[in-house]
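# nightly structure sweep
# worker-07 picked up a monomer target from the shared queue
# config: single-sequence mode, recycle default, output format = C-alpha cells
# input follows
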Amino acid sequence: MDEYIIGLDSGTSGIKAVVFDKWGTELSKAERTLRAYCEEESWYEEEFEEIWEKAKDCIREAAAGFDKNSIIGIGITAQGDGLWLFDEKLRPIRKGCCFCDGRGAEQFEKWGEDGTAEEVFRRAGTRIFTGNQPCILKWMDQYAPEELEKAKYCLHLKDALFAYLTGKISTDTTDQSLVFLDMRTGRYDPELFRYYGLEKYLEKYPSVVHSWENKELILPEMAQELQISENVMVTGGPMDVAACALGAGVIEEGECCSIIGTAALHEMVISEPCKDTIFAGMTVFHAVQDRWLRLMASLAGTPNLEWLLGILGERLTIPARENNATVYEYAEQLVNKSPIGANGVIYHPYLLAGGERAPFTDPNARADFIGISVKNTIEDLVRACYEGVAYAMCDCYNHMPIPVKKITLCGGGTSSSTWCQMFADVLGKEVLIVEGKELGARGAAMNNGVVQGIYCDFKDAVEHTVKTDKVYIPDMKKHSVYQRFFRLYKKAYEDMPTTWALRHEVMKM
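# output follows
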C-alpha cells in the first residue's frame, strides 16, 4: 500500500492541508480562509478556535479520498512570531497576536534607545521587531497582566495545533529562535529573558527541541474524529519560513529563498550564526542540522497589490471583464504598458500594521506613492506597486552576509510571470521556480518523512521531491535602468522616518 503524508500549513490569511506522496507530489488539497481582527490600528489578531476547527475540516477533506491507513503522518507548519496564550487546560486566553501585530512599538522603541536591541542582536543575530514575542509579551505584561497571569503556556501557532492533535506541549528551534534561544545550542538563553525584563515568564515556555525531534503519535480520539489511523505520526515544525526553504530545496550555504506572500521573506542559508554585523533582519535555526537561515523578513508582500487593485475597483474590473481576463491578468497588461520607473512614480510597500522590519526596522513606516503628477496613469500606479515590492526585495538581498549562490521564489507572488521576471531584472540574478505550489506544507511533510525514515536525511528528501519548473534570466540592460530608480526608492524612504513618527503621534491624538 502506498503511504502519504499531510502537510498542514496555517498562514496569516488561510489554512490548508495538502496530501503528498514520497516524491513530493501534491495529490489533494483543502483550504479555508481565516478572519483577521484589527480592533486597534496596530493590532492584528486571529481566533485560535476558528483556526483549529478549520484545520480539522481541511485534514478530513484532504484525506477523504485515501485509505485511512495510507496516511502515515501529519507535518505542521504555521506563521511564526506572534503570541498565543493558553491556560492549564489548553484553552485560549484571548485571540492570538500574529507576526504583523504592531502593539509592541512603544517597547520596541525603548529597547532601541537603551541598547537592548543591539545586545540582543549580538547574542541572537536578530534585530528585534514588534511582532516578535518579547515585544508582545512585554505589552501584555504592561497592559493585560491579568491575562498573562491566567496563561500557563506561551506558544506559537504551530505549537498549539501540535498540542491539540497530540496532547504534547512543546516547541521547536525554528520558531523559538525569535528571540529566546542560544543560537548555537538551541536551548533557552536566560540572559535574553533578563534583557527583556521577562524572566518570570520563562516558566510558561514549553520544552524546545529541533523540528526533527518534535514528534508524537496522534491522540486516538483525534484520529477517530479526523477519520484517519491512530498510527499517524505528527511532527511540529519547522515554522513557515524554514518549511518553505526546505520545500524549495534550499538547504546549502549561500542558497536563498524568497517567499512572496502576506509578508515578503528573503532568506539565506548560512553555516554559522551570529557572525555578521548587519544590524537588520533575523537569524533562525533551519530545519536542517547545522544550518541556520539569515532572514530579511520584510513586510512588503502581496497585500500591496491586493489593496491597490481593490481600491481601483471598477476601473479595473470592468475593462478586465471586457478583455476576458481576471483582474490580476489585466493588471499585468497594465504593468507592461508603463515603462521601467513607472514614469517617475515610486511606491513604498509598507502597508501592514507593523510597518517594516527589514532591511530597516520602523513600526511607524507606512506605504506611500511619491512622484505623482498629472501625466501619470493607472498603468503607472500599478507598475509602481509591482516595482516597489521588487525594490524591497533587492534592498533585502543587498544586506545579506555572504554572496548569493541561487535564488528560489515561492509563495503566491510566483503566479505572476511579470513579477518573477521583474524580480530577476531588478536583482540582476537568475531566479528559479520549483514544481509545486504548496512549498511550506511540503517542507513540513518532508520533515515528517525524515522523522519516519522515508528519507535518509534532508538532502535525500530534497533529491526525491524538489524539481525545477522555470528559470527567469535577468535582462542586464533593464537591470541597469532599474538600479537608477532603486536609488531613488531607497533615498526616499531614508528621508521618511521623521514624517512617519509625526504621523504616528498625530494619529494618537
